[in-house]
Amino acid sequence: MEVIFGIFFVVFFGVFIYNVVMNIAQWHKNNQSPRLSVDATVVTKRSHTSHSHHHHDGHTHTSSSTSYYVTFQVQSGDRMELEVKSYDYGMLVEGDFGVLTFQGTRFLGFERKYNE
Fold first, then answer.
1. How far apart are the first and last CA of the chain?
2. Which residue, among 77, 116, 70, 115, has the nearest Cα to 97 in the 3D structure?
C-alpha cells in the first residue's frame, strides 16, 4: 500500500509542477509578445464550469469556478479563442465587430465599432 501511495504522490506532484511551469512559461511568452490591435468579429462564446468537492470534519464542501472564452475572427479569416473576464463575456455579443486588443493569448480589450 505504501508503494501505491508513493507512486500516486509522485505523479500528483509531477503534474502539479508541470502545470505551474507551463503557466509561468505562458505568462512569460505573453509578456514578451507585442500588444496588437486588429479588426475582429465575435464569432462565438462559451463558458466552462469546474466543480470541486472537499471533505473536512465529516462534511463535504463543494465549490465551483467558471472560465469564460470568446472566439474572435480577424480579417484574414483566422480565428482565436481567448479567455476573458466575466464582465467582458457579458458585454460581448456574437456578431459584434470592433477592434480586438490582445497580447499573446491574453485578452486586453474589445472596442465595438458601430455602423454609421
1. 71
2. 115
- Report the predicted TM-score, pTM, of the whole model to 2 decimal places: 0.76
Place of cell 470592433: 98
C-alpha pair distances (Å), 62 with each of 50, 51, 59, 67: 11, 7, 10, 17
40 and 2 share one domain: no
Q: Give how many domains the chain has, as a whole number.
A: 2
Q: Are 61 and 41 found together in one domain?
A: yes
Q: Do 28 and 49 sit in the same domain of this protein? A: no
Per-residue pLDDT of the chain (116 residues; tens, 9 = 90+): 788 888 888 998 899 999 999 989 989 998 999 999 999 999 999 999 998 877 777 778 888 899 999 999 999 999 999 999 999 999 999 999 999 999 999 999 999 997 65
Nearest one of 47, 30, 29 to 83, comparing CA atoms: 47
